[in-house]
Amino acid sequence: MSGIETVLFPRGYKFIVCDIGEDFEKERVYIKLLLERGVEGILSSPCQGKDGRNNSKLYREAVRRNIPVVFYDRILDGMERISSVTLDNRQAILQGVLHLKENGHRKLGIVLHKKGIYTIEERRMGFVEACKMLDIEINTDWIIENAVDVERASMSLESLLRSDRRPDAIISTNQFLNEVIVATVRRMGLKIPGDLSIVGFDDHSMNELIEPPLTTIRQPVKDIGRIAATIMLSEIDGTRGEKSKVVLKAELLKRKSVSKLI
């Protein structure tokens, strides 16, 4: 949010923050509200409903009314007329898998958040592609999906780590899961990275403060917001012709949560 504000505030723009919480229906209500209020532009991280539905029709209506729309973090298929700023999520996960392999890990698992979210699906595909490219076995039992709350994520991970054949490293896919994974491993009496190496995703300040400091994949959140807001202003001003499709790279921050097996 701070990246967006640094661009909009100096230009005298005020913005309405709509927290949709992965709720397709709530998003629909908010888009209609914004259209009714005659906003000059919409910055959105769009979501998908459980059945795959989305609010593309309303975004198209905004475009029809000449209201600039810019997607950030996520996109919707078939919306080529809308500019976007996203992360190369597949490349981000590749960095984590490559780092683990370089340290001797070949039994890799991944914990994924809500199924159907664009970013999570891209990270899943990135994991599969990276393992194939680096000749690492893909064990589907080590892929935990739809870990949307603490209880479900903890139970699934604990079950996996108590199994006879378990991974020696886990990749997380967001900050929420970073915290759940670390807490679950500690509760089980396992040591990080002695018993399990962890590569997190996102770079909240606590990742550096926990013991051991967590190796994480950092996405340039402020840059995503800043660039998205800059594109939107240029579309409001009419100074941009072609729609922009900006894809940013992640950075692997190597700390102390990955053990060296070779």
Provide tags for this entry.
4-stranded parallel β-sheet; single chain; Rossmann fold; 6-stranded mixed β-sheet; 2 domains; 9 helices; 262 residues; alpha/beta
**CATH-level-4 superfamily name of the largest domain:** Response regulator
Query: Based on CA inertia axes, which overall geometry fits?
Result: elongated
Q: What is the class of the largest domain in the CATH system? A: Alpha Beta
- Using the coordinates shown, work out and report the CATH topology of the largest domain: Rossmann fold
Q: How many DSSP-defined strands?
A: 10
Low-confidence stretches: none
Q: How many individual domains? A: 2
Provide mean pLDDT, rounded. Answer: 94
Write the element-wise H/E pattern from the N-terminal end onward.
HHEHEEHEHEHEHEHEHEE
Query: Major beta sheet, specifics?
Result: 6 strands, mixed
Biggest sheet, strands in spatial order? 5-4-6-7-8-10
- Structural class category: alpha/beta
Outline of this structure?
The protein is α/β, with parallel strands linked by helices. It has helices spanning 2-8, 24-36, 56-64, 89-102, 118-133, 150-161, 175-187, 206-209, 221-237, and strands at 42-44, 69-72, 83-87, 108-111, 143-144, 169-171, 197-201, 215-218, 245-248, 251-253. Helix 7 links the parallel strand 6 and strand 7 (197-201).
Descriptive account of the structure:
40% of the residues lie in helices and 14% in strands. By secondary structure, it is α/β, with parallel strands linked by helices. It has two domains: 2-87 and 220-248, Rossmann fold, CATH 3.40.50.2300; 89-219, Rossmann fold, CATH 3.40.50. It has a six-stranded mixed sheet with strand order 5-4-6-7-8-10, with helices on both faces. A four-stranded parallel sheet has the order 1-2-3-9. The radius of gyration is 20 Å and the shape is elongated.
